[in-house]
Amino acid sequence: xxDTFSTAATSAVFSHSPAGKxxxxxxxxxxxxxxxxxxxxxxxxxxxxxxxxxxxxxxGSGKSTLIRLIxxxxxxxxxxxxxxxxxxxxxxxxxxxQLRTHIGFVFQQFNLYAHxxxxxxxxxxxxxxxxxKKSVAREKARALLTRVGLGDKAQHYPEQLSGGQQQRVAIAxxxxxxxxxxxxxxxxxxLDPEMIGEVLLVMQELAKSGITMIVVTHEMSFAREIAxxxxxxxxxxxxxxxxxxxxxxxxxxxxAQRFLQKVL
Length: 264
Ligand code: ADP
Ligand code: MG
Fold this sequence. Notes:
The protein has helices spanning 7-16, 63-70, 93-101, 118-128, 134-147, 163-175, 193-207, 220-225, 244-249, 254-263; strands spanning 23-34, 37-48, 52-56, 78-83, 86-87, 103-106, 181-185, 212-216, 229-234, 237-242. By secondary structure, it is an alpha/beta fold. The protein is globular, with a radius of gyration of 18 Å. Magnesium ion (MG) is lined by residues 63-64, 185. Magnesium ion binds at residues 63-64, 185.
């Protein structure tokens, strides 16, 4: 397989595709098995550039696997995944790093480096992967920390920060390479309730910025108020996709109806 994610090809694609014209993410009949266990089943999905999508569904339904497939944390067993119309199968080395530069990922458990300050966590990829000068990378990190409301916490270590603050550092880190797509896997599930709001606020600001967002969440307020579209998964399949008001007021699939009765 040829590396279609060559540097020149991707920078052209990512910087010039007009918003709303291209699919940012496209799944064609994608399946994923772990051993004999098929956890993603022939999924077709299209997410437009700039769209904000909330993914919900019961535990074990395949939500994390779905978004991990997008940045190749998992590879598909069959089917095709295109990012801005570029096939992503079997990417390795520089081409894979190039793909991940365009896709930020925010984990449930923040995954910050404990021995690095907030500023160092955010700037690390620029220095290590992209060869930026330390001083310039740190400056960009501080600007991003300011954007997520942590301008005064740049020199703090993760253990000196609350969960909500750590997650905002993780969001700043995910943005540092100017990705066109950002994926969130239950970003507020590990937080104390009083800290969920500050993280959702940052995500709401981000949603307005034109970045493509795919958010696995149990936070129905986010899905209802911020998402352009809600996707409901169960058993490795997308059972329903709808605009938030339709999904919450008139869920069609019986399993979506049952899910909503439990979470609302
Ligand atoms: P969700 O995020 O909706 O809770 P996941 O995508 O994490 O669901 O998991 C879907 C199914 O795939 C579950 O049955 C889970 O146990 C299984 N699974 C996920 N990751 C792995 C893995 N690395 N190895 C084996 N099974 C896995
Ligand atoms: Mg999950």
